[in-house]
Amino acid sequence: MDQKNEQSNNENNENCERPLLAYKNDKFLDTPDARSLRILSEYLYPLSHFRREKVQDTIVFFGSARTAEIGPNAGYYNDARELARRITVWSNNLENPGRRFVVCSGGGPGIMEAANRGAHDAGGKTVGLNIGLPFEQRPNPFISPELCFEFHYFFMRKFWFAYLAKALVVFPGGFGTLDELMEILTLVQTQKLLKKMVVILYGSEFWKEILNFDALVRHGMIAESDLALFNFADDVDSAFHLLETGLTKYYLEPDRETPAIAKSRV
User: Fold this and answer.
1) Cys-Cys link to 196, which of 69, 159, 250, 258 (CB 3.0-4.6 A)?
2) For every residue of the chain, which 3-state class applies, written as one string?
3) What is the total count of domains within the chain?
4) Does 128 reside within a domain?
5) Do 59 and 87 contact (CB within 8 A), yes or no?
6) Which residues, in sequence order, are CB contacts of 151 under 8 Å at separation 6+?
7) Segment 196-228, tens digit of pLDDT
8) How far is the CA of 141 from the CAs of 57, 63, 147, 171, 241, in angstroms?
9) Is residue 203 in a domain?
């Protein structure tokens, strides 16, 4: 009887494989029960890279993925590239142990590519916050490899757009660009971003046709003072001047009356 029991136990031990550690179990990590872990990873993974690369803050470029280097809107592509190049040259010459005002985009083609390309032209680091989509969106080749990220969750991608940004340059775009612009303006208006944000809408003719801000004031939907949350620019020189002036005033040579810059609540 004892021999049979011992044989049975040996057979059970041979058939029982050692289970995977939970954090190495891909099948589990892809379940609804592990969603919170996936969300947390999209916070911690970029955070670790930003710390390692000493990226203190960013300048975010938004705009259409459909704007190509050659075509009817090529001017916007070339302007985004040149503006990103100039701001990166300026940033690289700042006396600071960390990397300041690093150009950041959504990581895809179009205006996003142009921004990353311009920073790359200047020999600077540049961030790409890519989002996994069934079409159109693939990381462009000009992103610094160590700062190229892929997101599943739109809200975690938006968090990283907002959290490090000190300035936002918005070129003409569609639904995605409008969504990102309005989200940042809402955060600034409601003071959920406890920091000064330089917001530039590039291409005044386009933006004034697409968004009638004056009508929002006239109908009492926003305050007239809300129009001061952003500026228009129509050429690289004007946009660069707005960025340089605003970032210098708020972050490099803050006025005595300006309170200490608080961290974002986002």
Assistant:
1) 250
2) CHHHHHHHHHHHHHHCCCCCCHHHCHHHHCCHHHHHHHHHHHHHHHHHHHHHCCECCEEEEECCCCCCCCCCCHHHHHHHHHHHHHHHHHHHCCCCCCECCEEEECCCCCHHHHHHHHHHHCCCCEEEEEECCCCCCCCCCCCCHHHEEEECCHHHHHHHHHHHEEEEEECCCCHHHHHHHHHHHHHHHCCCCCCCCEEEEECHHHHHHHCCHHHHHHCCCCCHHHHHHCEEECCHHHHHHHHHHHHHHHHHCCCCCCCCCCCCCC
3) 1
4) yes
5) yes
6) 42, 129, 130, 131, 132, 157
7) 999 999 999 999 999 999 999 999 999 999 999
8) 22, 17, 12, 20, 28
9) yes
Residue 104: phi, psi to the nearest 5?
A: -130, 140
Angstrom distances, CA of residue 160 to CA of 5, 18, 27, 31, 60 = 59, 39, 27, 24, 10
Task: Give residue 128's identity as a one-letter amino acid code.
Answer: G
Give a yes or no: residue 14 inside a domain.
Answer: no
Q: So what's the pLDDT on residue 7? A: 55
Dist CA 173 CA 171 (whole Å):
6
Q: How far apart are CA 137 and CA 148, in angstroms?
A: 13
Question: What are the distances in angstroms from CA 240 to CA 30, 88, 117, 122?
Answer: 44, 11, 17, 15
Rounded Cα distance between 110 and 80, Å, is 10
257 domain residue, yes or no: no
Query: The domain spanning residue 42 has which CATH number?
Result: 3.40.50.450
Q: Count the neighbouring beta carbons within 10 Å of the beta carbon of residue 186.
A: 12
Domain range for 49: 25-252
